[in-house]
Amino acid sequence: MKVLFLNPPAIGGKSIAIDPILSRCSGVPAKAPYLWPPIGLAYLAAYAQKQTRAEISILDAQAEGVDEQETVKKSSGYGLVFFNASTPTIERDVALCNKIASKGPKTAFLGAHTSHFWQSALENSLADFAVLGEPERPVVNLIKAVESGKIREAKGIAWKKKGKAVKNTKAKPVEDLDLLPFAARDLLPEGKYYDILIKGKKLGFVISSRGCPFRCRFCSANASGSKYRARNAKNVLAEIKGMQESGVDDVTFYDDSFTIDRKRVLGICKGLKGKEINWRCLSRADTVDRKMLEEMKRAGCYQVMFGVESGSQEMLDKMNKGTDLGKIRETFKNCNELGIETAAFFVLGFPGETTKSIEKTISFAKELDADFASFNAFTPFPGSDIFEEFGHSGKNWQDYDFTSKSFCDIPTGELQAGIRKAYRAFYFRPGYLAGRLKKAGIERTVRQNLLFWAKRKGVLWEKGIK
């Protein structure tokens, strides 16, 4: 049987980050000039290749520049199409999935959104199945079930029985991630992915751990309910070696938080020293210290992206962030002194936010002196702790795009104005450009910062995803 993993087309020219393995990435519109590989699909495809006899393909319509009509055409001829769906695009996804299903293939929704809303996703579409929870085992179970016709026995999926959605027994997640194959990057289009913030010439993504032991109320990283698990250093280094051999010189560790396990991080750093590989990662400011950062720097780490969230301790406490402003200050100071670039991510508009707390965040962002900052409107994604407080009915999912709607007492227009003010205050402050020129040089500063700001302006001045 021929099986296709589909990453659907961009909407309105905006790429959407959707990852079926990392539930925090259930539809994040790009706000800077980058197009990241759907790495979760590549890991899933590799596992399906290993566990089944199916002929596996990936169509990344965003990278290929394929429109919806061409996507339908390219999806025909497959026995089963896994559709990578997201929260803010779900209405489009359902419509496109219907067109694909009407041409003959069996279709299955992937992703945190349809895993959470499997009943409505199936009963309001022509899709045949929805994958529930962590997807590896359910995907393989479904492929085998479609081939054998034994759908009732496929653990970890939902399906239709006389038009009504029903779900089978839950599938157990893979406990030992070292048993999983490396991503099938050969199934992704060559030379289509880019990011102006990278230091190298060819980027590659790695998922080296899953889950997060922290419980920030706004985050859906633990939507699958699985505990934190990590691949060992030897396993991760082996995958990076293969990536280097294929020409990758810049690696992004796409984990929810790469630096949770100190011993593992130091082991990876030891293996990367002298390998001439540039790399960056996502982290929490309270999971690194000076010694770890020094080792990361020596191993080729040039950038760390931190979830700071707010400059108000009161708001951090409301978010259940579990850290304090002093620790964040210390971490950014260490990175700046060591020459590690920093990107600071902020959430504005969490319930309880006020204009005063927004001002504190703007001041704190400037104080941290990060190389880059991203200010996003709080959005209660399915699977996050706070999502249940907003109910389920009457959703306008297109507003769940981190810019279009306020979910706190601050009116939407006022919150959007606050976000725009934050960007201007951060990027247009005296000394910012001089600092970037000193750290990154003229060519990289021009390439990064001018394009970075120009793109963000376009996103922030528009209304959502159309």
**Number of strand segments:** 19
Helix and strand content put the structural class at: alpha/beta
- Oligomeric description of these chains: single chain
The CATH homologous superfamily of the largest domain is called Aldolase class I
- Share in helix: 25-40%
Percent in strands: 15-25%
Major sheet = 7 strands, mixed
Low-confidence stretches: 458-466
Q: Give the overall form.
A: globular
Number of helices: 15
- The CATH topology of the largest domain corresponds to TIM Barrel
End-to-end distance, in Å? 35 Å
Overall average residue pLDDT: 92
CATH architecture of the largest domain: Alpha-Beta Barrel
Integer count of domains: 2
CATH class of the largest domain: Alpha Beta
Sequence of strands across the biggest β-sheet: 5-1-6-7-8-9-10
Radius of gyration: 22 Å
Report on the architecture of this protein:
This protein is globular. It has helices at residues 39-51, 61-64, 68-75, 90-101, 112-116, 118-123, 136-148, 233-245, 262-272, 290-298, 313-318, 325-338, 355-368, 412-427, 432-460, and strands at residues 2-7, 16-18, 26-29, 34-35, 55-60, 80-84, 106-110, 129-131, 157-161, 164-167, 194-195, 203-206, 209-210, 229-230, 250-253, 278-283, 301-309, 341-348, 372-377. Helix 4 links the parallel strand 6 (80-84) and strand 7 (106-110). With 466 residues, the protein is of the alpha/beta class. The model is unreliable at 458-466 (pLDDT under 50). Helix 1 (39-51) packs across helix 7. The strands form 5 sheets. Strands 5-1-6-7-8-9-10 form a 7-stranded mixed sheet, sandwiched between helices. The chain has 15 helices and 19 strands. The chain folds into 2 domains: 2-164, Dehydroquinase, class II (Rossmann fold), CATH 3.40.50; 197-460, TIM Barrel (Alpha-Beta Barrel), CATH 3.20.20.
